[in-house]
Amino acid sequence: MWQGAWHILIYELRKTRWGFLGSLLLALYMAIVLGFLYRFNEMDVSAGEYWAIDFVFLTTLPCLGFVLSRSSMSCWRNDTYSEKLAEWRTMPITVPQIIWGRMLQIAVMLFPLQIIFFLIQYFLVDGLREAISPGAYLLYGLFWFLYSLGMAATYAIWEYGFTGKTYMIVCVLYCIMYMLISTLLSFNGFSIVNSVLTGFENGEWWYLLVGLLVSMTGIAISYVCLKHRLETRSF
Hints:
- With 235 residues, this protein is mainly α.
- The chain has one domain (2-232).
- It is built from 13 helices and no strands.
- The longest helix has 30 residues, at 95-124.
- This is ABC transporter permease.
- Keywords: Membrane, Transmembrane, Transmembrane helix.
- The chain crosses the membrane at residues 18-38, 50-68, 106-125, 137-158, 170-193, 205-226.
């Protein structure tokens, strides 16, 4: 199974190498913009200053696991993912190989792009280097990687399991959900980004367990749902 998933990963990476460049540019843009806008100050959290930062982190970071290409942007009109899967299902490729190939691609995309993102953040965000040690910041980045991996895995359910139109609609619903979460937490004087950051600096390593739980749960749900969906879906 893993050999087949690895072959799918290599094939997809070669096919979408220019799309990786698009995702890299997105990561650079978001990191630089947030680097100048985000100022680390614990006192501002109670004033509701960080709802937008939370929203951008929750929304954008999982998206770095996906290729930003012409075909991905046109899935509403052309339903490119369904066409690709219909072709693959005529080949000697098993459903688990397709699923794990996609999970591997998400992880391989996320890892380097988030390293770049958080490195830029570390040097650009005002007050960040003074507020957190390099070791704690490494764990902070790992937390967001695990979160992103779990959430991106759930996107794959809609990406591979349904039509392009359904996938895009669900992505909008995800954004609305993130907006509601960020706003409600902000009204109650809580910021996810700042709380996790200060938590690691204060030695609260259990945040990593939360990230690991999100990651494992998202991947498990994605695998079960996609396996059932792809085995029963009519192309």
